[in-house]
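Appendix B. Chain record.
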Amino acid sequence: MSVRSVYNIYALFYDSLFSGTFNDARKKAISGLSIDDSKKTIEFGIGTGLSLKFFPNNYNLLTGIDLSEKMLGKCAKKAQQYNMNIDLRIMDCENTSFQDDSFDYVLLMYVYSVTQNPHELLKEAFRICKSTGSVVIINHFSNVKSERLNFFEFALSFFENVIGFRSKFSFKEYITDKNLKIDKLLNANIFSITKVVFFKKADNLHVE
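Structure tokens predicted for this chain:
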């Protein structure tokens, strides 16, 4: 089953599953940036727009992209509720149509372990980020402290095509081994199972 198909189904109940405790990371990611009316932000995999309520009031420089038209439909309704004028587009996050250095902030919220080619997603995020800007990743990583998977990560690894994300997603492989220079690393959500990782593009010009 394709990622688009999975998340078109998820759109029916996504908010019930992935709001609540997951919002702690979204709030920390957005509050950790100096977002104002002069800074352009893009969120990869914006989904149903669960992050919208954490942006500054009347902020209208947000672009959101996602493969799922049904998720974006839900997001558009939330944008109306929050009186936000958002540029929403159905688009592959690994291969966007934006020019180099287009955005001050590029947010990858719970999408790094969802995309088919994580390295291509990372490259694209840094490509469209301004040289003075930042890239922020929110994700569960399976082995920040140990190479071993816990029971739930191991069990979920057999159902990746159905659940739409990888439970086995190594911090070493997808962060450390890429020689990414971390600006700030925060724990988030219940039991600190999620990491919020801030990168400055100026410190990571080697990502290509």
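Further analysis of this model is presented in Appendix C.
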